[in-house]
Design goal:
With about 260 residues, the chain is of the alpha/beta class. The protein folds into two domains: about 150 residues, NAD(P)-binding Rossmann-like Domain (Rossmann fold); about 100 residues, ProC C-terminal domain-like (ProC C-terminal domain-like fold), CATH 1.10.3730.10. It has eleven helices and eight strands. It has an eight-stranded mixed sheet with strand order 3-2-1-4-5-6-7-8, with helices on both faces. Strand 4, helix 3 and strand 5 form a beta-alpha-beta unit. Helix 6 packs across helix 11 and helix 7 crosses helix 8. The chain is globular. It starts with a strand and ends with a helix.
């Protein structure tokens, strides 16, 4: 196992770290650097040690998990302290040339995971900017411990991934709020029962998809002619739910591209 340092321990870094630990990764090989007291407190609860840049093992793989506005300064700090560091940027929008124009003597990989990495159901897009094959395979194996990976051959595809998959969990959480409200009423406001019902519902959907079934066939298997499901689906169609959902995803992808242009 490789030593890992999270430079910036916000939500996504915590999700990856938590997923790695639950998959058996030695928490003694994971460290973090963060000035934010709230992030530091939450990350320490995972059993991970806080450290300083000047004291880390130079052979560590450094995961850059800061906000876009802080990415270049953090990258510069790392590059000025560690000779030829291995850096995995988790930052949305900052293209590799912005980093490499500043410091070239590094091995750089861009990765875009989502927060489902926490439960080892993550989806991570990875683009190799200039790392050697050994380093890239090490990083790939790390992300495979927390879910599945997509290796990209074009860097601009990361923006599409960010808006579609990186933000994806939030879209479903947003839609589930309608279900949550209705199910709570059915369960007389029993929140634990509500959580079990929603989890079973989602797991049932996932298992059906996992059987390689066609989505239209799955819909047809639930909807009977002139039945309740058909009535709900007709309402969704008349209100153009699918088109509006598509617009939301398009807006997220556009924002990812805008961030790239801003920085």
């Amino acid at each position: 196992m490789n030593k890992i340092v999270f430079y910036g321990s916000g939500n996504i870094s915590q999700a990856i770290a938590s997923g790695l630990i639950s998959s058996g990764y030695d928490k003694n090989l994971i460290e973090f650097i963060d000035r934010n007291k709230i992030n530091s407190s939450r990350t320490k609860k995972l059993g991970i040690r806080k450290t300083k840049l000047k004291t880390i093992d130079p052979k560590s793989i450094i995961f850059l998990g800061v906000k876009p506005k802080d990415a270049i300064s953090a990258y510069s700090e790392i590059s000025s302290v560690i000779k030829k560091p291995m850096i995995v940027s988790l930052v949305a929008g900052i293209k590799s040339n912005k980093y490499l124009n500043k410091y070239k003597n590094i091995q750089l990989i861009r990765a875009m995971p989502n927060t489902s990495s926490k439960s080892n159901k993550g989806i991570t897009a990875i683009y190799n900017c200039n790392a050697n094959k050994v380093t890239f395979n090490k990083v790939l194996s790390i992300f495979k411990k927390v879910g599945t990976t997509i290796e990209l051959t074009q860097e601009n595809k990361i923006d599409d991934f960010t808006g579609l998959i990186g933000s994806g969990p939030a879209y479903f959480f947003y839609l589930l709020k309608v279900y949550e409200k209705r199910i709570l009423k059915l369960c007389n406001n029993d929140k634990s029962k509500k959580d079990i019902i929603i989890c079973n519902l989602l797991e049932g959907v996932a298992n059906s998809i996992n059987d390689n079934s066609n989505l239209d066939e799955l819909i047809a298997s639930v909807a009977s002619k002139k039945g309740t499901t058909e009535a709900g689906l007709q309402s969704f169609k008349s209100s153009k739910l699918s088109q509006n959902f598509e617009k939301g995803i398009t807006a997220a992808i556009k924002r990812a591209k805008d961030i790239s242009a801003e920085f």
